[in-house]
């Protein structure tokens, strides 16, 4: 494999980088670790906002947030934060423990969506909408890569997913797919937007995250992995 090809190979695990925390439950992370976490979460939320502004449909959990927002006259960011809090309560019977990253995930992604979305273009032509969805998906992938490698605790939805997998012993992919489909269907029923953008995001987000993790590993990684 050539050097160029190795950069674009999809990662199978979350790599350890120069900024990764050795303890996910650390209450006093290094400044650079915290900065990477905050930057990653803001990029993630901005990517979500870019997809929302495109108007072609959004990620499954954002469909749910849109639906809740319609029902209670909330912004998508407010509804996203509400969902995160509810999901965190669902951690209790699973005995999952939140880290700093878990709390900041719930706060910063919701803030980024509401703050950034009004400043973004809202195209009417399909080609520009598609480009915007692709760009937003890439941003979510980049944000996910930074946030995951910080290793300061899973996001509310990720922790719920891994907790369910642990107690049910159902394959993680099946658990994630089931949760996303349920969130999507409930959100759509409540008035959230399901469309081409939703499908594009669902197909591409996994490979985009894996690709960025690989690039991160090649540029800043060590020889360890985060399990």
3D architecture notes:
The mean pLDDT is 91. Helix 4 (76-90) packs parallel to helix 7 (156-168), helix 6 packs across helix 9 (196-220) and helix 7 packs across helix 8. It contains nine helices and two strands; from the N terminus they run αβααααααααβ. It starts with a helix and ends with a strand. It is mainly α. It has one domain. Helix content is 69%, strand content 4%. The protein has helices at 3-7, 31-54, 60-72, 76-90, 100-116, 126-150, 156-168, 172-190, 196-220, and strands at residues 14-17, 221-226. The longest helix has 25 residues, at 126-150. A two-stranded antiparallel sheet has the order 1-2.
**Total domain count:** 1
> Main beta sheet, described?
2 strands, antiparallel
Mean pLDDT value:
91
**How far from one another are the termini?**
25 Å
> What low-confidence regions span 5 or more consecutive residues with pLDDT below 50?
none
Helix content: 55-70%
Number of helices: 9
Question: In order across it, which strands form the biggest sheet?
Answer: 1-2
Radius of gyration: 17 Å
Which descriptors apply to this entry?
two-stranded antiparallel ribbon; 227 residues; 69% helix; globular; mainly alpha; single chain
Give a quick rundown of the structure.
The protein has helices at 3-7, 31-54, 60-72, 76-90, 100-116, 126-150, 156-168, 172-190, 196-220; strands at residues 14-17, 221-226. The chain is mainly α and 227 residues long.
């Amino acid at each position: 494999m050539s050097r160029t090809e190795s950069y674009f190979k999809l990662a199978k695990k979350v790599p350890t980088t120069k900024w990764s925390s050795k303890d996910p439950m650390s209450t006093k992370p290094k400044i650079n670790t915290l900065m990477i976490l905050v930057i990653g979460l803001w990029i993630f939320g901005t990517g979500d906002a870019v997809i929302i502004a495109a108007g072609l449909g959004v990620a499954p959990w954002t469909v749910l947030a849109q639906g809740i927002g319609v029902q209670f006259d909330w912004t998508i960011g407010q509804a996203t934060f509400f969902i995160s809090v509810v999901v965190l309560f669902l951690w209790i019977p699973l005995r999952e423990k939140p880290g700093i990253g878990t709390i900041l995930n719930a706060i910063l992604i919701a803030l980024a969506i509401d703050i950034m979305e009004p400043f973004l273009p809202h195209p009417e032509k399909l080609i520009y909408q598609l480009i915007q969805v692709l760009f937003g998906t890439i941003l979510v992938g980049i944000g996910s890569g930074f946030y995951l490698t910080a290793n300061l605790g899973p996001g509310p939805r990720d922790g719920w997913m891994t907790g369910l997998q642990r107690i049910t012993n159902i394959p993680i992919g099946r658990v994630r797919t089931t949760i996303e489909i349920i969130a999507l269907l409930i959100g759509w029923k409540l008035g959230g937007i399901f469309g081409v953008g939703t499908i594009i995001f669902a197909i591409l987000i996994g490979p985009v995250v894996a690709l960025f993790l690989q690039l991160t590993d090649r540029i800043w990684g060590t020889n360890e992995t985060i399990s």
